[in-house]
Specification:
Layout: H1 2-14, H2 24-30, H3 35-63, H4 65-79, H5 82-85, H6 89-106, H7 109-120, H8 127-146, H9 149-155, H10 159-175, H11 189-194, H12 200-205, H13 208-216, H14 219-241, H15 243-249, H16 254-273, H17 284-304, H18 307-335, H19 342-361, H20 364-369, H21 373-395
Helix pairs in contact: 1-8, 1-10, 3-4, 3-6, 3-19, 4-6, 4-7, 4-10, 7-19, 8-16, 8-18, 9-16, 14-17, 14-18, 14-19, 14-21, 16-18, 17-18, 17-21
């Protein structure tokens, strides 16, 4: 178990370590792309997730989690080499599409693999802590690396992409050593005896029926998926799509992009590593809703603040996100009662989040071009608080299936 968890930590450390993230907007602008092209590519990136999430989750449920993780890691290696050699619009588009393929194979599947592995060892109670640790270690790596990435780009403009490709290779080597699922039992053993693992043919022919049945019989699970939109969408929009335009609007220089994101990541890692204190005051579900409101309010603080206030708001945003992510994943896994469709159901949640990102990103470019980034932040904050309140009222009517 220790060896496998160590490999999981290595994989989760290097796979999401996209070192070019703080500077990709600036990099693409220097390569000749304009705002409409840059945000258009990002919208298509999220749309690719929308198309790929369920098929890749189904692939992992049918042919094994480990195989899906290997494909995702291999796709990431290739994707990070493209911006070095193909700097046209089509090159960046293919780069992001390959990242969508890589991350869609891994999102949900990695969580499902860990959850099922721990369940087979009667160690399911460690899932939330291990997932939190993995995220914290990955974030800590970003703190160290991102702090210098702006300066590295000034030294050699393609270096962030070379280093990211190297990280992807290490992640691929780690996942190649993951134990095969046949070496450990599946969870819900009694259920598995009555209902053997579905074959590819039966899975595809009866695909919609069992998935829709699971969601229909668990309004709690469906609402939980929609609840996660606030956390995920705001996180992606602020930390990826709007991060550089926000700093540019506040007159930060390119070197500061890296170290500010590094400090943000440090706060996120602290929140992810030390989130248990929240249970002293609220249940996990209530904490997630409260944190979503804090995340939204931090966006408005950015809109109204100068340099110092913007940094404080970004750090608050990052810490709150760090607390929320492991709790949200734990709530999702607890709400899934049929482990045979775990990766697919987790992929559906990701699909909902990514599709919303694709929709929202289409509105960003005009705001940025007109210098109205702050207005967009305020609109996003107000919409999230209103939406979160509605979902919270609806979820109070239902209980998690695991508690019944």
């Amino acid at each position: 178990m220790k060896k496998t968890i160590r490999l999981y930590y290595i994989f989760q450390f290097f796979f999401p370590l996209l070192l070019w993230l703080p500077i990709f907007y600036e990099y693409q602008k220097r390569m000749g792309l304009d705002d409409s092209q840059i945000f258009g590519i990002q919208s298509l990136y999220y749309l690719a997730f929308f198309v790929l999430e369920i098929p890749t989750g189904a692939f992992s449920d049918i042919w094994g989690y480990r195989r899906g993780l290997r494909i995702g890691a291999a796709a990431l290696v290739i994707s990070n080499l493209l911006p070095i050699f193909v700097t046209s619009y089509s090159g960046f588009l293919i780069h992001f599409i390959l990242i969508a393929i890589a991350r869609s194979f891994v999102s949900g599947t990695s969580n499902a693999y860990l959850y099922e592995y721990l369940t087979s060892l009667n160690a399911r109670e460690h899932y939330k802590q291990i997932e939190g640790n993995a995220r914290a270690y990955g974030l800590a790596g970003k703190v160290v690396c991102w702090s210098a990435i702006g300066a590295l780009m000034q030294w050699h403009i393609t270096l962030p992409y070379w280093l990211t490709a190297l990280c992807a290779v290490i992640a691929l080597l780690a996942v190649l050593k993951f134990p095969h699922q046949s070496t450990f039992q599946k969870s819900d053993l009694e259920t598995q005896k009555k209902e053997p693992r579905i074959s590819p043919k039966n899975y595809i022919s009866n695909y919609l029926s069992p998935i829709l049945k699971s969601l229909w019989n668990s309004p709690y699970l469906l609402l939980l998926m929609f609840q996660g939109i606030g956390i995920f969408v705001l996180g992606r929009i602020c930390q990826i799509n709007l991060y550089q335009p926000i700093l540019e609007d506040k007159k930060f220089d390119i070197v500061s992009y890296g170290w500010i994101m590094a400090i943000m990541t440090l706060f996120e890692a602290i929140g992810s590593k030390y989130h248990k204190w929240t249970r002293k005051f609220l249940t996990d579900l209530n904490v997630v809703f409260a944190i979503t409101a804090i995340i939204a309010l931090s966006l408005s603080l950015m809109a109204f603040s100068g340099k110092t206030g913007t940094m404080v708001a970004l750090f608050l945003f990052a810490y709150a996100s760090g607390v929320a992510y492991p709790l949200q994943k734990h709530l999702m896994n607890e709400a899934i009662t049929d482990s045979r469709y775990r990766a697919t159901l987790l992929s559906i949640e990701s699909l909902i989040n990514r599709s919303m990102c694709a929709y929202i990103v289409t509105f960003i470019a005009p705001f940025v071009a007109m210098g109205q980034t702050g207005l967009f932040l305020n609109i996003s904050a107000a919409a999230t608080i209103l939406y979160g309140g509605i979902i919270f009222m609806l979820m109070r009517r239902y209980k998690c299936p695991a508690e019944k």
